[in-house]
Amino acid sequence: MRKYSAFAIAREAFRGHKGWEQQWRSPEPKAEYDVVIIGAGGHGLATAYYLAAEHGITNVAVVEKGWLGGGNTGRNTTIIRSNYLYDESAGIYDHAVKLWENLSQELNYNVMFSPRGVMMLAHNIHDVQVFQRHIHANRLNGVDNEWLTPEQAKEYCPPLNISKDARYPVLGAALQRRGGTARHDAVAWGYARAASARGVDIIQNCEVTGVRRAAAGHVEGVETTRGFMRAKKIGVVAAGHSSVIMQMADVRMPLESYPLQALVSEPIKPVVPCVVMSNTVHAYISQSDKGELVIGAGTDQYTSYSQTGGLHILQHTLDAICEMFPIFTRMKMLRSWGGVVDVTPDRSPILSKTPVQGLYVNCGWGTGGFKATPGSGHVFAHTIARDEPHKINAGFTLERFRTGRLIDEAAAAAVAH
Ligand SMILES: Cc1cc2nc3c(=O)[nH]c(=O)nc-3n(C[C@H](O)[C@H](O)[C@H](O)COP(=O)(O)OP(=O)(O)OC[C@H]3O[C@@H](n4cnc5c(N)ncnc54)[C@H](O)[C@@H]3O)c2cc1C
């Protein structure tokens, strides 16, 4: 793999940019792999990369029914933070933030990680108490999070409305300065390029239609629209379709799949310097490097595999944005879209072995898995390679829904982005 550098750009400028290689190979599927990963989103590609880079397992295929990064990885609003309440959650999300901080260097690919700060607004006494509890818990876990007065919040984000006459006045905010955003497509592309260079086969336009199991129960391989691929181990990393694939292996998952929408405005000059989230008015906002306001909220109320979603959700979201930022009232919205997110009863993910030998699952990230991409891939690769969890994902088992040992972020945070 040719290294990307300022020198390489200068060299190619002198020879008409004819020397750039394809970023990843597009090989024909082989008959047999050590590991097949189902789903070429950020989590699946990161898993394949760390299997090759850290565990020396390179006979790996990542099988994708569409194009790589075309699922939720390419549809999300890119918020990154790690100020979750429970020890397990803070552990895995902060592991990810630490990897984000050096990811562009590690992959030799600019993922545009931008730690511009994530500010979560408190609008009532309950919010104030919950966020201050989070701040104390986070500090005990070595995760940065600090309390701001309304005036300090406005200083950090000048267009914010802190008028006491607002329907939901800002009473303060929790700020994680190490949080921020990254370029979602670049994350998928960077992992794909680095994994492919280490020998991983990325097979796009190849839908998994079945999981074949031996009479003894263990996995034998995957049926796909491009033929059968034998595999010693299978990792399911298919976001909103995880339960569909696990059903193919006769494993019933505690998941519901919902549409989640986002939208962007026309581009304007830089005006929102950080990420602002509000659980109470139920909307969040940041500004992309192109200048578009990137806006989202919670899931639609009904389960569905539709990637569109209902208009009233967007209308409610924009009402909330105008409440927080009256200066955006006259802005035009450019595009909206949806993705399908899989949600667990406790709103925490599952990264785990399964009752089927050789079958592993990484799912249930709901509305907030983009931020975890590097950490999730890192510990899931460990789980697959060693057939046992990394200590960071040890609590994120499938069995917790049987034993009751939940990681109940659902109760701790109404919005999980
Ligand atoms: C609108 C929206 C906003 C969001 N905002 C944020 C945010 O701000 N911050 C945050 O942290 N998270 C956010 N998320 C959540 C985040 O996008 C996801 O948790 C994360 O991207 C999941 O990554 P993944 O790699 O697991 O899934 P995906 O990127 O969805 O990858 C799964 C892949 O599996 C493939 N697949 C499915 N079935 C099959 C099959 N049968 N055969 C082969 N391939 C298959 C799909 O095509 C897909 O490409 C948001 C999500 C949405 C939809």
Automatic annotation (TrEMBL):
The keyword Cytoplasm applies. InterPro entries: FAD-dep_OxRdtase, FAD/NAD-bd_sf, Rhodanese-like_dom, SoxB. Its EC number is 1.5.3.24. It catalyses: sarcosine + (6S)-5,6,7,8-tetrahydrofolate + O2 = (6R)-5,10-methylene-5,6,7,8-tetrahydrofolate + glycine + H2O2; sarcosine + O2 + H2O = formaldehyde + glycine + H2O2. Keywords: Cytoplasm, FAD, Flavoprotein, FMN, Nucleotide-binding, Oxidoreductase. Residues 35-79 form the Rhodanese domain. SUPFAM superfamilies: FAD-linked reductases, C-terminal domain (SSF54373), FAD/NAD(P)-binding domain (SSF51905). It is found in: Cytoplasm. Its cofactor is FAD; FMN. It comes from the Bacteria. Pfam families: DAO (PF01266). Belongs to the SoxB family. This is Sarcosine oxidase subunit beta. It comes from Aquamicrobium zhengzhouense.
